[in-house]
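Sequence, C-alpha coordinates passed on for absentees:
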Amino acid sequence: MEGILAAYGDKVRFLEDDYRVLLSAYPAREGKVGIVTAGGSGHLPVFLGYVGQGMLDGCAVGNVFASPSAQKMEDMIRACDRGNGVLCLYGNYGGDKMNFTMACDAVEMDDIRTETVLVCDDVASSPKGEEEKRRGVAGMVYAFKIAGAAAEEGRSLEEVAAAARKALAGIRTMGVALTPCIVPQVGKPTFSIADDEIEVGMGIHGEAGIEVRKMMTADEVAEELLSRIEADMPLAAGDEVSVMVNGLGATPMEEQLIVFRRVAQLLKEQGVSIYMPHIGEYATSMEMAGLSLTVFKLDGELKALLSAPARTPFYTNGNK
Protein backbone atom coordinates (compact mmCIF):
# COMPACT_ATOMS: atom_id res chain seq x y z
CA MET A 1 0.00 0.00 0.00
CA GLU A 2 2.85 2.38 0.79
CA GLY A 3 4.37 1.52 -2.58
CA ILE A 4 1.14 2.40 -4.40
CA LEU A 5 1.01 5.75 -2.64
CA ALA A 6 4.69 6.42 -3.34
CA ALA A 7 4.28 5.59 -7.03
CA TYR A 8 0.86 7.12 -7.72
CA GLY A 9 0.44 9.85 -5.11
CA ASP A 10 -0.76 12.21 -7.83
CA LYS A 11 -3.81 9.97 -8.37
CA VAL A 12 -4.61 8.40 -4.98
CA ARG A 13 -4.36 9.08 -1.26
CA PHE A 14 -5.03 7.28 2.00
CA LEU A 15 -8.04 8.15 4.11
CA GLU A 16 -6.53 9.96 7.10
CA ASP A 17 -3.38 7.80 6.99
CA ASP A 18 -5.49 4.62 7.02
CA TYR A 19 -3.63 2.36 4.57
CA ARG A 20 -6.67 0.08 4.34
CA VAL A 21 -8.73 2.74 2.56
CA LEU A 22 -7.57 4.31 -0.70
CA LEU A 23 -9.30 7.39 -2.12
CA SER A 24 -9.04 9.30 -5.37
CA ALA A 25 -6.73 12.31 -5.16
CA TYR A 26 -8.54 14.07 -8.01
CA PRO A 27 -10.90 16.87 -7.00
CA ALA A 28 -14.52 15.95 -7.65
CA ARG A 29 -17.38 18.35 -8.07
CA GLU A 30 -19.97 18.59 -5.32
CA GLY A 31 -22.95 16.39 -6.09
CA LYS A 32 -21.10 13.73 -8.08
CA VAL A 33 -22.25 10.23 -7.16
CA GLY A 34 -19.50 8.31 -5.38
CA ILE A 35 -18.38 4.89 -6.67
CA VAL A 36 -16.75 2.53 -4.17
CA THR A 37 -15.65 -1.07 -3.94
CA ALA A 38 -13.91 -3.37 -1.47
CA GLY A 39 -12.48 -6.84 -1.12
CA GLY A 40 -9.48 -8.85 -0.11
CA SER A 41 -6.00 -7.93 -1.26
CA GLY A 42 -3.99 -10.29 -3.44
CA HIS A 43 -5.80 -9.42 -6.68
CA LEU A 44 -3.92 -6.34 -7.92
CA PRO A 45 -4.72 -4.31 -9.95
CA VAL A 46 -8.20 -5.15 -8.55
CA PHE A 47 -9.30 -3.31 -6.59
CA LEU A 48 -6.87 -0.59 -5.68
CA GLY A 49 -5.56 0.08 -9.17
CA TYR A 50 -8.86 1.51 -10.38
CA VAL A 51 -9.23 4.35 -7.88
CA GLY A 52 -8.91 7.73 -9.56
CA GLN A 53 -10.65 9.94 -12.07
CA GLY A 54 -13.47 8.41 -14.10
CA MET A 55 -13.61 5.11 -12.21
CA LEU A 56 -13.64 4.45 -8.44
CA ASP A 57 -13.69 7.15 -5.79
CA GLY A 58 -12.69 4.76 -3.02
CA CYS A 59 -11.57 1.24 -2.21
CA ALA A 60 -11.17 -0.62 1.07
CA VAL A 61 -9.03 -3.76 1.27
CA GLY A 62 -8.65 -6.57 3.76
CA ASN A 63 -5.93 -9.15 4.21
CA VAL A 64 -5.11 -11.48 1.32
CA PHE A 65 -8.39 -13.00 0.07
CA ALA A 66 -10.24 -11.64 3.15
CA SER A 67 -12.91 -8.95 3.30
CA PRO A 68 -12.13 -5.61 4.95
CA SER A 69 -14.19 -4.76 8.02
CA ALA A 70 -17.59 -3.09 7.91
CA GLN A 71 -16.04 -0.11 9.72
CA LYS A 72 -13.48 0.42 6.93
CA MET A 73 -16.26 0.26 4.36
CA GLU A 74 -18.37 2.71 6.35
CA ASP A 75 -15.47 5.17 6.63
CA MET A 76 -14.89 4.90 2.89
CA ILE A 77 -18.54 5.47 1.98
CA ARG A 78 -18.72 8.56 4.19
CA ALA A 79 -15.54 9.95 2.59
CA CYS A 80 -16.93 9.46 -0.93
CA ASP A 81 -20.39 10.95 -0.41
CA ARG A 82 -20.80 14.38 -2.00
CA GLY A 83 -24.47 14.82 -1.28
CA ASN A 84 -26.06 12.57 -3.92
CA GLY A 85 -25.23 9.13 -2.60
CA VAL A 86 -22.73 6.33 -3.15
CA LEU A 87 -22.82 3.27 -5.38
CA CYS A 88 -21.29 0.17 -3.78
CA LEU A 89 -20.07 -1.96 -6.68
CA TYR A 90 -18.32 -5.19 -5.72
CA GLY A 91 -17.97 -8.93 -6.26
CA ASN A 92 -20.53 -11.47 -5.13
CA TYR A 93 -18.70 -12.89 -2.09
CA GLY A 94 -20.19 -13.65 1.33
CA GLY A 95 -17.87 -11.62 3.56
CA ASP A 96 -17.99 -8.54 1.34
CA LYS A 97 -21.79 -8.70 1.13
CA MET A 98 -22.19 -9.01 4.90
CA ASN A 99 -19.82 -6.15 5.73
CA PHE A 100 -21.10 -3.84 3.00
CA THR A 101 -24.67 -4.39 4.23
CA MET A 102 -23.69 -3.34 7.74
CA ALA A 103 -21.75 -0.34 6.41
CA CYS A 104 -24.65 0.83 4.26
CA ASP A 105 -27.10 0.46 7.16
CA ALA A 106 -24.82 2.59 9.32
CA VAL A 107 -24.40 5.47 6.86
CA GLU A 108 -28.05 5.51 5.90
CA MET A 109 -28.88 6.34 9.52
CA ASP A 110 -27.14 9.65 8.74
CA ASP A 111 -29.09 10.13 5.50
CA ILE A 112 -26.28 9.01 3.17
CA ARG A 113 -28.02 7.15 0.37
CA THR A 114 -26.44 4.02 -1.09
CA GLU A 115 -27.17 1.62 -3.92
CA THR A 116 -25.60 -1.83 -4.25
CA VAL A 117 -24.70 -3.58 -7.49
CA LEU A 118 -23.11 -7.02 -7.29
CA VAL A 119 -20.72 -8.29 -9.95
CA CYS A 120 -21.65 -11.88 -10.95
CA ASP A 121 -19.81 -12.44 -14.25
CA ASP A 122 -18.12 -15.84 -13.75
CA VAL A 123 -20.11 -18.29 -15.88
CA ALA A 124 -18.28 -21.27 -14.38
CA SER A 125 -19.58 -20.70 -10.86
CA SER A 126 -23.33 -21.22 -11.46
CA PRO A 127 -25.48 -22.34 -14.38
CA LYS A 128 -27.58 -20.14 -16.62
CA GLY A 129 -30.73 -19.11 -14.78
CA GLU A 130 -28.85 -18.79 -11.49
CA GLU A 131 -26.72 -15.81 -12.42
CA GLU A 132 -27.23 -14.20 -9.01
CA LYS A 133 -25.10 -16.97 -7.45
CA ARG A 134 -22.09 -16.36 -9.68
CA ARG A 135 -18.75 -15.00 -8.48
CA GLY A 136 -17.48 -11.59 -9.48
CA VAL A 137 -14.17 -11.72 -11.34
CA ALA A 138 -12.35 -9.69 -14.01
CA GLY A 139 -15.55 -8.36 -15.57
CA MET A 140 -15.85 -6.00 -12.62
CA VAL A 141 -13.19 -3.79 -14.23
CA TYR A 142 -15.59 -3.00 -17.06
CA ALA A 143 -18.33 -2.31 -14.49
CA PHE A 144 -16.06 0.13 -12.63
CA LYS A 145 -15.37 1.91 -15.91
CA ILE A 146 -19.01 2.20 -16.95
CA ALA A 147 -20.28 3.31 -13.54
CA GLY A 148 -17.42 5.79 -13.13
CA ALA A 149 -18.08 7.37 -16.51
CA ALA A 150 -21.81 7.61 -15.81
CA ALA A 151 -21.11 9.36 -12.51
CA GLU A 152 -18.75 11.81 -14.22
CA GLU A 153 -21.59 12.74 -16.59
CA GLY A 154 -23.61 13.89 -13.59
CA ARG A 155 -26.14 11.09 -13.56
CA SER A 156 -28.15 10.38 -10.40
CA LEU A 157 -27.40 7.50 -8.04
CA GLU A 158 -30.22 5.45 -9.52
CA GLU A 159 -29.05 6.18 -13.06
CA VAL A 160 -25.44 5.26 -12.29
CA ALA A 161 -26.57 1.99 -10.71
CA ALA A 162 -28.74 1.29 -13.75
CA ALA A 163 -25.78 1.83 -16.08
CA ALA A 164 -23.68 -0.61 -14.05
CA ARG A 165 -26.45 -3.22 -14.11
CA LYS A 166 -26.92 -2.76 -17.84
CA ALA A 167 -23.21 -3.30 -18.41
CA LEU A 168 -23.10 -6.39 -16.21
CA ALA A 169 -26.06 -7.92 -18.06
CA GLY A 170 -23.74 -8.14 -21.08
CA ILE A 171 -20.52 -9.20 -19.34
CA ARG A 172 -19.39 -12.82 -19.05
CA THR A 173 -16.07 -14.27 -17.86
CA MET A 174 -14.49 -17.72 -17.89
CA GLY A 175 -11.01 -18.65 -16.67
CA VAL A 176 -8.46 -21.46 -16.58
CA ALA A 177 -5.70 -22.17 -14.06
CA LEU A 178 -2.39 -23.96 -14.60
CA THR A 179 -0.90 -23.59 -11.11
CA PRO A 180 -2.12 -22.69 -7.62
CA CYS A 181 -1.09 -19.68 -5.58
CA ILE A 182 0.13 -19.46 -2.00
CA VAL A 183 -1.68 -17.28 0.54
CA PRO A 184 1.07 -15.86 2.78
CA GLN A 185 -0.75 -16.56 6.05
CA VAL A 186 -1.35 -20.18 5.03
CA GLY A 187 2.09 -20.80 3.52
CA LYS A 188 1.03 -23.61 1.19
CA PRO A 189 -0.72 -23.88 -2.18
CA THR A 190 -4.48 -23.29 -2.18
CA PHE A 191 -5.03 -26.39 -4.35
CA SER A 192 -3.01 -28.91 -6.37
CA ILE A 193 -2.92 -29.61 -10.08
CA ALA A 194 -0.55 -31.79 -12.08
CA ASP A 195 2.05 -30.22 -14.36
CA ASP A 196 0.32 -31.60 -17.45
CA GLU A 197 -3.19 -30.54 -16.42
CA ILE A 198 -5.30 -27.40 -16.64
CA GLU A 199 -8.39 -26.58 -14.59
CA VAL A 200 -11.29 -24.98 -16.46
CA GLY A 201 -13.43 -22.53 -14.48
CA MET A 202 -11.12 -22.09 -11.51
CA GLY A 203 -12.04 -19.22 -9.16
CA ILE A 204 -9.63 -16.43 -8.24
CA HIS A 205 -9.37 -17.70 -4.66
CA GLY A 206 -8.70 -21.27 -5.70
CA GLU A 207 -12.36 -22.28 -5.84
CA ALA A 208 -12.88 -25.49 -7.75
CA GLY A 209 -13.53 -25.25 -11.48
CA ILE A 210 -15.90 -27.32 -13.57
CA GLU A 211 -13.39 -29.82 -14.94
CA VAL A 212 -9.71 -30.75 -15.05
CA ARG A 213 -8.23 -31.49 -18.47
CA LYS A 214 -4.91 -32.42 -19.92
CA MET A 215 -2.89 -29.40 -20.96
CA MET A 216 -4.31 -27.56 -23.98
CA THR A 217 -2.71 -25.27 -26.55
CA ALA A 218 -3.38 -21.54 -26.38
CA ASP A 219 -5.75 -21.83 -29.36
CA GLU A 220 -7.65 -24.65 -27.65
CA VAL A 221 -7.93 -22.59 -24.45
CA ALA A 222 -9.32 -19.65 -26.45
CA GLU A 223 -11.83 -21.87 -28.21
CA GLU A 224 -12.94 -23.52 -24.96
CA LEU A 225 -13.42 -20.27 -23.04
CA LEU A 226 -15.21 -18.45 -25.85
CA SER A 227 -17.53 -21.37 -26.58
CA ARG A 228 -18.59 -21.58 -22.93
CA ILE A 229 -19.19 -17.82 -22.78
CA GLU A 230 -21.23 -17.89 -25.99
CA ALA A 231 -23.29 -20.81 -24.71
CA ASP A 232 -24.36 -18.50 -21.89
CA MET A 233 -24.50 -15.23 -23.86
CA PRO A 234 -24.91 -15.87 -27.60
CA LEU A 235 -23.32 -13.44 -30.04
CA ALA A 236 -24.56 -12.71 -33.55
CA ALA A 237 -23.18 -11.14 -36.71
CA GLY A 238 -23.16 -7.38 -36.31
CA ASP A 239 -22.59 -7.44 -32.55
CA GLU A 240 -19.81 -5.30 -31.11
CA VAL A 241 -17.91 -6.39 -28.00
CA SER A 242 -14.93 -5.46 -25.89
CA VAL A 243 -12.71 -8.43 -25.07
CA MET A 244 -10.47 -8.76 -22.03
CA VAL A 245 -7.74 -11.41 -21.80
CA ASN A 246 -6.65 -11.20 -18.18
CA GLY A 247 -3.53 -12.80 -16.72
CA LEU A 248 -3.94 -14.30 -13.25
CA GLY A 249 -0.50 -13.29 -12.00
CA ALA A 250 2.13 -15.45 -13.69
CA THR A 251 1.12 -15.65 -17.34
CA PRO A 252 3.40 -13.83 -19.80
CA MET A 253 1.92 -11.17 -22.05
CA GLU A 254 3.08 -13.19 -25.06
CA GLU A 255 0.78 -16.05 -24.07
CA GLN A 256 -2.12 -13.70 -23.40
CA LEU A 257 -1.72 -12.20 -26.87
CA ILE A 258 -1.69 -15.63 -28.51
CA VAL A 259 -5.01 -16.39 -26.81
CA PHE A 260 -6.42 -13.02 -27.87
CA ARG A 261 -5.31 -13.65 -31.46
CA ARG A 262 -7.42 -16.80 -31.62
CA VAL A 263 -10.42 -15.15 -29.93
CA ALA A 264 -10.22 -12.32 -32.48
CA GLN A 265 -10.14 -14.83 -35.33
CA LEU A 266 -13.18 -16.69 -34.00
CA LEU A 267 -15.21 -13.54 -33.49
CA LYS A 268 -14.30 -12.21 -36.94
CA GLU A 269 -15.55 -15.45 -38.47
CA GLN A 270 -18.89 -14.83 -36.73
CA GLY A 271 -19.10 -11.23 -37.92
CA VAL A 272 -18.57 -9.86 -34.41
CA SER A 273 -16.32 -6.79 -34.12
CA ILE A 274 -14.01 -5.97 -31.21
CA TYR A 275 -13.75 -2.48 -29.69
CA MET A 276 -11.09 -1.45 -27.17
CA PRO A 277 -9.50 -4.84 -26.42
CA HIS A 278 -7.95 -5.21 -22.97
CA ILE A 279 -4.95 -7.55 -22.72
CA GLY A 280 -2.87 -7.75 -19.55
CA GLU A 281 -3.22 -8.25 -15.81
CA TYR A 282 -6.47 -6.68 -14.63
CA ALA A 283 -7.57 -9.04 -11.84
CA THR A 284 -4.96 -11.47 -10.54
CA SER A 285 -4.72 -14.21 -7.95
CA MET A 286 -1.30 -13.69 -6.38
CA GLU A 287 1.17 -15.73 -8.47
CA MET A 288 -1.33 -18.12 -10.06
CA ALA A 289 -0.56 -19.13 -13.65
CA GLY A 290 -3.59 -18.97 -15.89
CA LEU A 291 -5.90 -16.46 -17.49
CA SER A 292 -9.49 -15.48 -17.96
CA LEU A 293 -11.51 -14.30 -20.93
CA THR A 294 -14.19 -11.62 -20.54
CA VAL A 295 -16.61 -10.62 -23.27
CA PHE A 296 -18.56 -7.36 -22.87
CA LYS A 297 -21.45 -6.85 -25.30
CA LEU A 298 -21.75 -3.18 -26.27
CA ASP A 299 -24.37 -0.78 -27.53
CA GLY A 300 -24.03 2.92 -28.29
CA GLU A 301 -24.43 4.07 -24.69
CA LEU A 302 -22.03 1.52 -23.23
CA LYS A 303 -19.48 2.14 -25.96
CA ALA A 304 -19.49 5.87 -25.19
CA LEU A 305 -19.09 5.24 -21.45
CA LEU A 306 -16.27 2.76 -22.05
CA SER A 307 -14.51 5.35 -24.22
CA ALA A 308 -14.80 8.15 -21.66
CA PRO A 309 -11.60 9.44 -19.98
CA ALA A 310 -10.16 7.65 -16.95
CA ARG A 311 -6.97 8.24 -15.01
CA THR A 312 -6.08 5.70 -12.32
CA PRO A 313 -2.85 3.97 -11.28
CA PHE A 314 -3.51 0.92 -13.48
CA TYR A 315 -6.10 2.09 -16.03
CA THR A 316 -5.66 5.20 -18.14
CA ASN A 317 -7.85 5.64 -21.17
CA GLY A 318 -5.74 7.13 -23.94
CA ASN A 319 -8.85 8.52 -25.64
CA LYS A 320 -9.14 11.28 -23.03
In short: The first helix runs from residue 2 to 8. The mean pLDDT is 96. The chain has two domains: 2-169, 171-299. The first strand starts at residue 12 and ends at 15.
